[in-house]
């Protein structure tokens, strides 16, 4: 009987251990597009003219981040079309993470258009389906710390069906920004990743793309400011 109890205890402990170890969340954005170690990747300008390039000035991980300057409007920013990844994952909840830092300390302490930067997932060329994650007027960005923007948003089948670009971009304010480690996950992994030092996967060292300066507009998409519906938005400061 003792042996049976011992065996049951071992089995129970094994089961507890198995359940306590969950698979790490998998970033579905490519390494080059997440970490900017080999240039700007597939990011293009959206909503006006903007200059951006991989920069070694500062970084959240690796050796470079994306430096964004000369933003024409508050909504003008580099944008990454993640339609392919979202179509593959299907309708449902996703979690987005990015790290943002102000280039100029003079922009600190301001709220509204300069102080707040959302990681905005923009789905419609008419601006009707925008989901905002992260920064708000109560949490202005800083120049000496990376701020983690993290939150969930829900992709509907209608968004997948309408054929419009599904863009990640950064909204609000014309301040210059550093951006790094932009990552995207299927499901709600906010609890798992909040406060964690989320970094981009290691880029393929053989995929050497020359850094390029991109000042082109993102096609001719008409932009209209529309209602933002943020879901589970969180902003976390990280010293770096
Ligand atoms: Ca980086």
Overview in brief:
The protein is of the alpha+beta class and 240 residues long. Helix content is 18%, strand content 31%.
Overview of the molecule:
Helices cover 18% and strands 31% of the residues. The chain is an alpha+beta fold and 240 residues long. It has a single domain, classed as Galactose-binding domain-like (Jelly Rolls, Sandwich). The strands form two sheets. Strands 2-3-10-5-8-11 form a six-stranded antiparallel beta sheet. The chain has a five-stranded antiparallel beta sheet with strand order 1-4-9-6-7, with no helix packed on it. Calcium ion binds at residues 35-37, 59, 61-62, 64-65, 180. Calcium ion binds next to loops.
Task: Give the topology.
Elements: H1 2-20, H2 31-35, E1 44-46, E2 51-55, E3 65-69, E4 77-81, H3 83-89, E5 92-102, H4 112-115, E6 118-122, E7 130-134, E8 145-155, H5 157-161, E9 167-171, E10 177-186, H6 190-193, E11 231-239
Antiparallel strand pairs: 1-4, 2-3, 3-10, 4-9, 5-8, 5-10, 6-7, 6-9, 8-11
Bound molecules: calcium ion.
Calcium ion (CA) binds at residues 35-37, 59, 61-62, 64-65, 180.
Helix content: 10-25%
Radius of gyration: 20 Å
Total DSSP E strands: 11
Mind telling me the CATH class? Mainly Beta
Outline, from the CA principal axes? globular
Major sheet characteristics? 6 strands, antiparallel
Strand content: 25-35%
């Amino acid at each position: 009987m003792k042996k049976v109890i011992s065996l049951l205890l071992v089995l129970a402990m094994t089961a507890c251990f198995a359940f306590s170890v969950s698979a790490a969340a998998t970033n579905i954005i490519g390494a080059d597009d997440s970490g900017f170690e080999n240039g700007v990747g597939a990011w293009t300008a959206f909503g006006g003219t903007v200059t951006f390039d991989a920069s070694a000035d500062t970084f959240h991980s690796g050796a470079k981040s994306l430096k964004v300057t000369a933003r024409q409007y508050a909504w003008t920013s580099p944008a990454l079309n993640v339609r392919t990844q979202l179509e593959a994952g299907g309708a449902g909840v996703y979690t987005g993470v990015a790290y943002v830092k102000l280039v100029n300390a003079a922009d600190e302490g301001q709220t509204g258009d300069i102080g707040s930067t959302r990681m905005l997932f923009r789905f419609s060329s008419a601006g009707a389906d925008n989901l905002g994650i992260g920064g708000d007027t109560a949490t202005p960005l800083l120049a000496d710390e990376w701020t983690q923007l993290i939150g969930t948003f829900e992709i509907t089948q209608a968004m997948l069906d309408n054929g419009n670009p599904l863009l990640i971009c950064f909204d609000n304010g014309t301040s210059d920004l550093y951006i790094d480690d932009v990552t995207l996950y299927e499901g709600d992994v906010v609890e798992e990743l909040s406060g964690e030092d989320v970094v981009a996967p290691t880029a393929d060292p053989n995929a050497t793309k020359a850094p390029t300066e991109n000042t082109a507009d993102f096609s001719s998409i008409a932009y209209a400011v529309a209602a933002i519906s943020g879901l589970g938005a969180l902003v976390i400061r990280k010293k770096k």
